[in-house]
Amino acid sequence: MRAELNSISGPETVHGTAIPAGVDDRSTRAGALSVRHYVAGGREHGGGIGRMAGYIVDSFGKDGIVHVVTDTRGPRWFPLTSLPRLAFAILLMTRDRVVSPRRVHHIHVAGRGSTVRKRILTAAARRLGCRHLVHLHDYDYAADFNARSAADQAAVLPMFKKADHVVALGRRDHQTLTTVLGVDQRRVSVLPNCVPDPGGPRLRDNDETRIVFLGRLSERKGVPELLRALSHPTMMQLRWRAVLAGDGPVDEYRRQARELGIADRVEMPGWLGPDETRALCARADILTLPSHAEGLAMAVVEGLAHGLAIVTTRVGAHEEVITDGSSGLFVPPGDVDALASALARLVSEPETRRALSMQARAAYLAQFSMASYRRSLERIYETVTNGTR
């Protein structure tokens, strides 16, 4: 059983480097400000949230605030391993309260099962007196909350209302927090996702236009419509190749691509790490994400950073970061013809593609640089550590 618990807890990561669980950086013992992130799946299996947490950790570096990432679930939800992970996270939080009392606990939460786990974790933080902030990542938290029973809603509210601070990805989530969940707006900050600067855009001299999709392959992300749009007659007569990078039922979507006659032009490599994602985007021309629901998709911010021509939908905070016709193109969710038309236009009009690329890169530099994000986050941490309860 002891060996099993060791495999369940696994290593923590400080500045992206694995360290044994229970070993702290010396600066945390000396009383310096430090941060523990709680992410379901950690950096490696936490999807877009895990990737964002990883970017935060790497950004601060060894000369900045010490960051530790704790996995509260494991690669997938499975009671025999996930529940011990959650219990272990609470044990670490309890130890922190004694060993590193100034540590800020940065709790990343979404809807559904994530809310259940983080409700327990935030209750522990309140009981222990830990300074903590809740970072909301969800494609429609208002709908998730409204679908819950009255008793469940009452149990969820303290997670947000009693946190020292709450972070939202965009204006829609800010409104959800302050109106639906009743959080004091003075304790809510809007902080859109960001990515490290890849140094783009690069001059791309592709024989065929390269299209990328980043994210979990699913209906919510619009993958069925994307495959049908790629097989549309307007696209089949053009020169392009596509890479759909992400986890999910990859084999099923490969089967659909074969049935649609585009398997030789569409690659699905599965989930890619940050380095592989950067390399893929560096070779690409177009990023498409025809989602039905998002908060603020990391894929869209990646596309802006790399200066890609973006085709996406008006969901979540996308309209807050993209100007239609200038830094990207919007299509209605689920509209295969509109998606095919937008993609075909960008494939066949390199000048339009380049113009969108330049504006996308400019939008990234103006709003989504990692340096700007870090400054904003440091101010939030200062608010959390110096605020009164």
UniProtKB/TrEMBL annotation:
CDD domains with a match to the protein in the record: GT4_PimA-like (cd03801)
Biased segments, Polar residues type: 1-10
Span of domain Glycosyltransferase subfamily 4-like N-terminal: 72-195
Region (Disordered): 1-22
One Gene Ontology MF term: glycosyltransferase activity
Keyword rRNA processing belongs to the record: no
Pfam families: Glyco_transf_4, Glycos_transf_1
Cross-referenced SUPFAM superfamilies: UDP-Glycosyltransferase/glycogen phosphorylase
Gene3D superfamilies named in the record: Glycogen Phosphorylase B
Limits of the Glycosyl transferase family domain: 204-361
Keyword annotations from UniProtKB, A to Z: Glycosyltransferase, Transferase
Protein name according to UniProt: Glycosyltransferase involved in cell wall bisynthesis
Lineage, opening ranks: Bacteria, Pseudomonadati, Pseudomonadota, Alphaproteobacteria, Hyphomicrobiales
